Amino acid sequence: MTTTTTPHGTDLGPAGSGLGTSRVGFGRLVRAEWTKLRSVPRWGLIMLAAVGLTILVSLLSAAGSSFQRDSVAPPPVGPHGGQVEDAFRFVHQPLTGDGTITARVRELVAVEGPDQPWAKAGLMVKDGTAPGARYAAMLYTPGHGVRWQTNFVVDRAGTIARGEPWLRLTRAGATVTGYESTDGTTWRRVGSVELAGLPATAEVGLFVASPRADRVERQFNATSVTSSSTWSTARFDDVAVRPATGQPAANWTDEAIGMTGLAKPTAPGAGPAAPAAPGAPDGLDGPDVPPVALVSGAPDATGASTVTGSGDVAPRAVDEDLTRMSLSGALIGLLPIVALGALFITAEYRRGMIRTTFAASPRRGRVVLAKAVVLAGVTFVVGLVTCATAFLVSQPGQRESGFVAPLFPDRSLTDWPVLRAVVGTALVLALVAVLSLALGTVLRRSAGAITVVVLLMVLPQMVAGALPLTAARWMMRLLPSAGFSIQQTNPRYEHVASVCLPEAGCVPDSPWLGLAVLTGYVAVAVAAACWLVRRRDA
Amino acid sequence: MAVRAEWTKLRSLPGNGWLLLALVVATVVFSALSVSAVDIARCPAPTECFEDTTRVSLWGVRVAQLAVVVLAVLAVTNEYANGLIATTLAANPRRGTVLAAKAGVVTAAVLVAAVPGVLGSLLVSRIILPGNGFSAANGYPPPSLLDEPTLRAVTGTVLYLGLVALLAIGVGTALRDTAGAMVAVLVLLYSAPVLVQLVGDPKWQHRLEKAAPMTSGLAVQATTALERQPIGPWAGLGVLAIWAGAALLAGALLFRYRDA
C-alpha cells in the first residue's frame, strides 16, 4: 500500500486555508469527538444496555449465591480489627515482669493429614489465653523456615530455613523481641514489637499449630475444595523460662486454645467416644482428635517436651469476596462497551466520515487520542455510576443469601477497598473501551475488534476451568482480563495458604498489578493504532 | 436461484473461507488443550475419575463457536453495511425466500466445516488421552463413533454449531448492525457460563444452565452421568433450537415488514 498523503508534520497550507490554523487544538478535537459520540442515538442505547446488563447480572449473582454457616460461634477478632483464626496447642505458664523464654525445635512433623508448609512450632508471649488476644511469637515452619509473627498480620522471615533452630523471646516492658540461633550461643535478632497494654503477667510457652489442609480436586470444569484439619507434632528441648527477677513458675498448663470446634459431640449410638487420656486438656476428647494429641506436653526435668497441635494462628482467609460479587456484572456489561468502543472508529471508516475527520485534523494520531480521551471519560463516568449502583442494589440480595455479620460485616461504599473496587471497575471498563477503540482502528472492522477483545477479556475465565491449575493461573495473570483483579477486596497475606482458583476469577496478584497489566495492553494497542493511522490510507 | 445467489456471496468473500478454517482449527486446538489438561493422576483412583472423555474431547467448540457467530452475523449485516441488501431485494423481492436461502447456505457451510473440526478433535483426543492415563485398561475406552453416546455427542455438537449459526442470523437480521448483533449473540451465549461460575447456589446454576442457549445446547455432549446433567442431551439441543427459532422468527418478521 502506498501512502498518498504524508499527514504527519505536513501543514495543510498557509495560515489562511479556511481552518484558521492547520494545527487544530487538542481541546477542539476532543469537543468534535464528543459531539460525534453524543449525536448517535444508537450508541446511547448501547451504553444503556451496558448499564442494565451490569446491574442485572450483579443482582442475579447476589440472589443466586448462598452461604451456609458451618459454625455457630463467630470467629475471634484480632487486635487489627479483622477476623482471625486463633486455635493452637499452648503449653504455657505465667511470666510476671520482664524475662526470657528459650527452646530448641528438634522436629516438626505432620501426624495426621498431609504435611503443612505453614505448620507452626515455637515460642509465644500472649496477653492471656482468650482467642484473638495479642501475642508475639518466634516459630519454625517446615516450609518457610524460622518466622517472627505478631498479632496475626505481621510476618517476617528469619535466616534459618532448615535444621533444628534455637528460638528465644525476650520481654522488656511492653516490648517483645524475637531471636534465632543455630547453636544456642550466638543470637540474631529477627524482630521486635511493642504490645501496647500487655499486662505485667503474660502467658509464655510452647505452641504448635497445624492449619487446615485444602484439597483441590479439579475435575474438568467442576472444582471441589475439601478442607480437613491436620495435626502436627513438635519435639522441643532445652526449654527454659528465665524471669528477670524471681523463679519461674513450677507448673505448666497444657491447653488447647480455640480448638473446641474440633471436639464434636458424638451422636447417640455412633460408638463410644475416644477415652480421654490422663492429663489431656479440656476440649480434646472429640472423635477427630488423634490419640497422640492426648499425651501431656509439659516439659520434663531436662526441658524436653513433645507437643501436638492443630489449628492456625493467622488472619482468617475469607473465600467469598462480596464486593467482587456485587460488581461481577461488569464482566457481561463490558460487552456492549466493547461494541461501542469499536464502533466509535469503525463507523467512521464505514461511512467515509474518517476522511472528513482527517481532512479537518491532519494529525491523525491526535484524532485517535482525542477519541480515546472522550470514550474513556464517558465510559468511566457511566461505569462509575453503574458500579456504585450495582454495589448498593446487590447488598440486600446478599444479606438474604446468608452473607450476614459477623462473618461478613456490613460494608459501605466509602470503605477504601470497596471504593477501590468500584472506581477500579469503572477504570477497567474505560480501559477496555479504549482497547476496543484501538483494535477497531487497527483492524478497521468492528466484528474483528469485538472478537479479539472478547477473546482476551471474557473467555479466559471460562477457559480457566479447563486448564491445569498452573497454566490457568498464568493465563489469568498475563491476559488483559487480569484487570478485573482490582475488584478483589479481601486482604491476602503471604503467610496464609489460600486456595486461589482462577475459574472463580481469583488472580494471585495485588489488585493494582492486574490493572497495570491491562493498562499495558491498552497502551500498546493505542500506540499501534496511532502509528498505523499515520502510515495507512484512510 | 436465491440459494445460488447466497452461495456466490458467501464464497466470494475470502474472509468467510478464513472464518470456516478458523472454526475447524480452533475446535481442534482448544479441544486438544482441554484434553491435555485432564490427567488421571489428579483423581482419587485411576478408575474413579468419572471424567466424561468424549465431552472433554469436544470442549473446543465453546471457543470455536466465536467464528460461527462472526460468519453468520456478517453474512447478514455486511449487506446492510455496504448497501448490497437493496440490490439483493431488487433481484428477489420475496424477502422470506431471501432470508431462508441465506440461513440455509450459511448453516450448511457451518455444518460442513464443523464435521472435520469435531472429528479432528475426537482423533486428537484419541491420541492424547491414553498418555494421560485414560486408557482402556483403566476403564476409559477411547471415544469412538461406534458407541451410541459418543455418536450422539458428535452429531449433536455439529448440529449445535448449525443452530448457533441460525441464532446469529436471526439476531443479525433483527438488529442489522454488526457490532450490536455480535454483542447480543455473545451475551446470549456466554453470559450463562460466566454467571454459573459467579452464582454459588446449585439450584440457580441448574436453572441457568437449563434455560441458556449455550449451556443447554452443549448438554448434548454428555455421554456419562446423564442423570446429573441439568437437562437431557436432545432436550438441551431443543432449548437452543427454540432460541434460534425465536431469533429467526423475530428477524424474519422485522425483515418482512421493515424498510431495508
From TrEMBL, chain A:
Keywords: Membrane, Transmembrane, Transmembrane helix. Residues 261-312 are annotated as: Disordered. The chain crosses the membrane at residues 43-64, 325-347, 368-393, 418-440, 447-471, 512-533. Residues 261-293 have a biased composition (Low complexity). The keyword Transmembrane applies. The keyword Nucleotidyltransferase does not apply. This is ABC transporter permease.
UniProtKB/TrEMBL annotation, chain B:
Keywords: Membrane, Transmembrane, Transmembrane helix. It comes from the Bacteria. The chain crosses the membrane at residues 61-82, 103-129, 149-169, 181-200, 234-255. The keyword Cytoplasm does not apply. This is ABC transporter. It comes from Plantactinospora endophytica.
